[in-house]
Structure formats: structure tokens, C-alpha cells
Design goal:
The chain is an alpha+beta fold. It is 47% helix and 22% strand.
Length: 335
């Protein structure tokens, strides 16, 4: 009878210890699952936030360029009485925005008869402080056939052109986008298409500055279990990368991505970037037909593996403790 009682006590003790062990394992497993979800949610929220900030800052700069350009165009509209007054109007506000490479007024054929078919005065910045006036319209540069000119005549609205490469053998050759607006004289006749040319140098510098600020932000990085690894790019509606850090272009070649970009949609996609797997967050930028994208090559499994190792160590410790307690109970019963 005494031996049977000891057996019952031993069995009950083992059941209790196994129950405790089971509770610990379940607790660690549930905690790991919750932490995994939390890390994924934090990572998603982090990069969406970075993307939104970049989009808003770029849109703000673009709006500033538009306002300055509209002021310039209004001056041209007020001074359509002679070619000289048009050039003076272009020069009057050309220095207000250093990010704009040049302002021009591309006139309709023979609007000023003595100026001929191609009259396009262009006030261009030759450095950060100086600018000069050039006549760039010619048979070689027949702007009447340019997409932006044709579109402006048809739409009667202002817009940003698609990025393009301009070459004339001078130092103004380069990659541009242009904010254009049709200008009409007092009779309602189309006089010219005014434009403000912008290169993508400022945009690349702006992206670099935004990335550096985010990577140094203590509120974003203080409580992370891993080092951040990301960069920001600007994508055109056709999927081409128009501004990016050096050697980090991110062309969007997948058809569904092109559709999203063309339709101005936001999203996130796992894809290969320059031979490496990456996660790309993207969203449209207001006022222009571009999207900003944040590319992260950070392996989300890295912090999860660290977390899993911690939980595994805790489980092993719990198993060791349970084993020692069982052995202790067995030794006591033998005595």
C-alpha cells in the first residue's frame, strides 16, 4: 500500500512537471508568433512612413517650382508686344529658383514675323548665380514637333512632361523634365508654350539627403533589433528609374507594376533588384506622373532568427530545470 502511494505521488508529480513544461513551451511559441507579427508590422510601418515622407518632400519641392514657373509665365503673358519684352520678362524672374535649369518661351510659327518659324528664347543658368539668353529654336531643334509642345496645344493645360534627354552639343545637354503651360495673347490667340526645365540632379541629392536623415533618426532606429539597409528612388510611370543613388537603379519591368505606376497606385512587392532579393514599397507623388519607391534589402528573418534563438535557449533552460526537479524528486523518494 505504501509503495502504491509513492507511485501515485511520483506519477502526479511528473504530470505536474510535464504540464508546467507544456505551458512554458506553449507560452514561448505564442510569444514568438506575436513578436514575429509585431516585427513584420513594425518593418512595414517603418518603410511606408519613410516612403510617405519622401513623397511629401518631393511634392512640396515640385509645387514650389510650379509656383515660380507660373509667375514667370504670367510675366511673359503680360509682355507679348515684342521679342525684346518677352526676353526681358524671362530674365526678370529666372534667378528665383536655382533648381530650375532654364525658362523658355517657344512661339508659334511667325508669331513675330521677323523672327521666323522657330523663335524660342531660352534663359539658362550657366552656374549657380549666372544665366544667359540663347535662341535655341531652329530647323535642327524643331520644337513644334516635340511631344510636350503638341500636348500643350491640345490640352490647353499646364503639366509636367515625361523625362527626356536633350542634346545640342552644349553644356545644357542632359536629362530633363519640363513644366509647360500654353500662353495666349489678349485676342485669345495661342502665342507660345512656356516651359521651365529641370534636371534630375537636385532630385538625386534630395533623395540622398532624405535617406541620410532617416538613417540617423533616433526615433526610427533606437529600439530596432537590426541595422537598417534601404534607399529611395523615383520611378517614372513607364517603370524607368529617373533618380536613384549611384549604381542603385530599380527598373520596374513587371507588367503589373507598370500598370500600378501608370494608374498611380501604391503597393509593396518582393522582387530581385540588381541581383539581390529586396522588398520595394512604392506610391505616387502628387503633381507629377512619378512614384517614389523605398527599396530595402534587409532580411526580415534576421531579427526573427535572433528572437527564435532566445526562445529556444529559454525552452532548453526550462527543460533542464524540469529535469533537475524530476531527478531531485526521484532521489527523495528513494530515500
Amino acid at each position: 500500500m505504501k509503495q502504491e502511494a509513492k507511485t501515485i505521488i511520483k506519477r502526479q508529480t511528473l504530470y505536474v512537471l510535464l504540464t508546467i513544461l507544456s505551458v512554458l513551451v506553449i507560452t514561448f511559441a505564442v510569444s514568438f508568433w506575436i513578436c514575429t507579427r509585431a516585427i513584420k508590422a513594425e518593418t512595414h510601418a517603418r518603410y511606408v512612413g519613410i516612403m510617405n515622407v519622401a513623397s511629401e518632400k518631393i511634392a512640396k519641392t515640385v509645387r514650389g517650382m510650379e509656383m515660380n514657373a507660373m509667375n514667370e509665365f504670367d510675366e511673359v503673358e503680360k509682355h507679348l508686344d515684342s521679342p525684346e519684352s518677352v526676353i526681358a520678362a524671362l530674365e526678370s524672374k529666372a534667378s528665383l529658383n536655382p533648381e530650375v535649369r532654364g525658362y523658355f518661351a517657344a512661339f508659334e510659327p511667325d508669331y513675330f514675323p521677323h523672327k521666323g518659324t522657330w523663335f524660342e528664347p531660352y534663359v539658362v543658368h550657366v552656374d549657380s548665380s549666372a544665366f544667359e539668353v540663347r535662341q535655341v529654336g531652329s530647323a535642327r531643334h524643331n520644337y513644334h514637333k516635340s511631344d510636350w509642345y503638341i500636348r500643350a496645344k491640345k490640352s490647353n493645360e499646364s503639366f509636367w512632361s515625361d523625362p527626356y534627354y536633350y542634346y545640342d552639343g552644349t553644356n545644357i545637354s542632359g536629362h530633363y523634365t519640363t513644366f509647360v503651360k500654353p500662353v495666349y495673347d489678349k485676342t485669345g490667340r495661342l502665342a507660345c508654350i512656356c516651359g521651365a526645365d529641370m534636371t534630375f540632379e537636385w532630385l538625386t541629392k534630395e533623395l540622398q539627403r532624405i535617406d541620410e536623415e532617416n538613417k540617423k533618426n533616433d526615433l526610427l532606429n533606437k529600439f530596432l533589433m537590426y541595422d537598417t539597409d534601404f534607399y529611395t528612388v523615383v520611378i517614372n510611370s513607364d517603370g524607368s528609374c529617373i533618380a536613384h543613388p549611384e549604381k542603385n537603379s530599380v527598373p520596374m519591368t513587371e507588367e503589373f507594376l507598370k500598370r500600378d505606376l501608370e494608374q498611380g497606385k501604391s503597393g509593396v512587392v518582393d522582387m530581385e533588384v540588381n541581383g539581390e532579393q529586396a522588398t520595394v514599397y512604392y506610391r505616387p507623388i502628387e503633381h507629377v506622373n512619378w512614384s517614389v519607391a523605398v527599396v530595402t534589402k534587409q532580411d526580415i528573418q534576421e531579427p526573427l532568427i535572433k528572437l527564435g534563438i532566445i526562445f529556444l535557449l529559454l525552452t532548453i533552460i526550462a527543460l533542464v530545470i524540469v529535469g533537475l526537479v524530476c531527478r531531485r524528486i526521484g532521489n527523495v523518494e528513494k530515500v
